[in-house]
Amino acid sequence: AGGAPRPLRSSPPLRRSRLVRRLFLLQVVTVLLTVGGLAALGGYGAVRLEHDAAGRLTTGIALALASDPEVVTAVRDGGDVATLSARLQPVAERVRRATSTSFIVVMSPQGIRYSHYNPGEIGLPYQGNIVPALAGRTSTEVYTGTLGPSVRTVTPVLVDGRIAAVISVGVLQTRISDLALRSLPGIVAAAAMAVLVGSGLAVLLARRLRRQTLGLEPEDITAAYTHHEAVLHAVGEGLLVVDGDGRLVVVNSEARRLLGLPGHDSPDDPAVPGRPLAGLGMDPAVAAVLTSGLRSDLRDRAALAGERVLLVNSRHAGPAAGPGTRVFTLRDRTELAGVLRERDEARDTVAALSGQAHEFGNRLQTVLTLIELGDTADAAAAGTAALDRTRGPGARVVAEVYDPVLAALLADKAWQAAENDVTFAVTDACDPDVLPELRLPFAADDLVSLVGNLVDNAVEVVTGRAGERSVAVVLRTGPDGRELLLEVADSGPGVPPDTARELFTFGFSTRATPGGRPRGIGLALVDRIARRLGGSVTVGARDDGSGAVFTVRLPLPAEPSGDDGDTVPPEDPGAPLHRPDVAVHRAETPATDRA
């Protein structure tokens, strides 16, 4: 108590992870094996290169000596071993030292040496294969001689077309290895650098992986993902997560349903991660609200998705989600509005019934007093009036309207109008022969939305106005029986022609919004429902130029033809209520008396 509250952590603390350690060790071992293998291949390659270079060197020297005039002349002149050795040994040693080869042996076709790196070997048989040379070919081989393993080339010396001698030039393997070792420091340095770089990258990757996984083990990550998916798709609100570039990150099942998007397993699903928010094919009204939510926070902003009213909230997702990432929540206000409307209507009905009960008690007391006074005639009249009064305005509406859904709805609206001192009149001039089972061929939800929004709008417009306060509802079928006309007229201020064009646009309203209550939804819903049903809605003035008349035209299914194929068009049920030259039934509802 009294201390400053500790800030909430945005993410759980990092912890040691066996997964990270295993991955790090795996990366280090992989780097070592890879670099070691490459180093071994590099060393082997260097040895092979020096071996090939030695073969080319010995071949070139052997061929050059075999055609050297001094060697050819000495061999042609002939002589014993000592004589030939005295002439050929200096030549061979001079060339050997100049070319850094290990030995150069000039020998007779029988393999008796005339020259050698070790003079003590002169006159002894040559250790190696001279059969290819005696056949007139030059060959290169690896052979272990008196000086050790060597790469040697053997070639014949031709004199007048005959093989007069054989020359062998060799480089010891130790010499080749010494030459290959010159490349070893570079290979080792490159390998060490690769190990250091690979190990450093492995450390950085391990740290990054530890931060990204928060030190969680694989089973923890699996459980977290499973729970995330379960919560994401079980939550009752639509959820959208959009990054700073306006691209979709997450969308749950409820958001797909509210926005009219296909399921995630659909082949033409547009709501895939990375898709721009504007490319989801949403209702333009919803897209405009979501786009505005990318720039600033939203709180219960109303949006119309088709015929569904959504409340959109937007807030920043926090630094852990990346800069500019936004979380949108979508709630279906349509069902909530229906529940609130039913609550308000029930509350109004209870208030009206309470007033009626109080009034009925007063009238009943009057009847009893008249009976006690012996005035039975006045008592009967007062009782009849009290009974008729108790039935309320809804009884006359129910008796007037054919369709039971509209009858129940308009009866409730009659009570609402009575509570607001509004004269409410209903006329059902539909041809009963056109309506199957005396019901309108439309879904109950569509009828409630169409009539309810228009009547609520009309009652609200005239409530509290000075002078006439009246609302009239007319239902009638067209002359050919293929069209239903619904008219709702009110004695309000009317709608200017320039405003009538925008009146059915979502969000547009001519009235203030006290308490932040969203406006411009009801008439937009009426327009969308009417267009979906193949009809239209228009607004104009009453015949006397005052007030407003909203007219909804809906096509009716074609009436089945008779057996003879002839159809008799129904009679014109008459003009709408606001025409003064036609007599209509008016179920007027006076204001309820208050005690």
TrEMBL record:
The keyword Oxidoreductase does not apply. CDD domains: PAS (cd00130). It is found in: Cell membrane. GO terms for molecular function: ATP binding. Residues 578-595 have a biased composition (Basic and acidic residues). This is histidine kinase. Its EC number is 2.7.13.3. Gene3D superfamilies: Histidine kinase-like ATPase, C-terminal domain, PAS domain. Its main location: membrane. Pfam families: HATPase_c (PF02518), sCache_3_2 (PF17203). It comes from Pseudonocardia alni subsp. carboxydivorans. The chain crosses the membrane at residues 23-47, 187-206. Keywords: ATP-binding, Cell membrane, Kinase, Membrane, Nucleotide-binding, Phosphoprotein, Transferase, Transmembrane, Transmembrane helix, Two-component regulatory system. SUPFAM superfamilies: ATPase domain of HSP90 chaperone/DNA topoisomerase II/histidine kinase, PYP-like sensor domain (PAS domain), Sensory domain-like. InterPro entries: 2C_sensor_his_kinase, HATPase_C_sf, HATPase_dom, His_kinase_dom, PAS, PAS-like_dom_sf, sCache_3, Sensor-like_sf. It is a multi-pass membrane protein. Residues 224-265 form the PAS domain. Signal peptide: none annotated. Residues 447-558 form the Histidine kinase domain. It catalyses: ATP + protein L-histidine = ADP + protein N-phospho-L-histidine. Residues 555-595 are annotated as: Disordered. The keyword Glycosyltransferase does not apply.
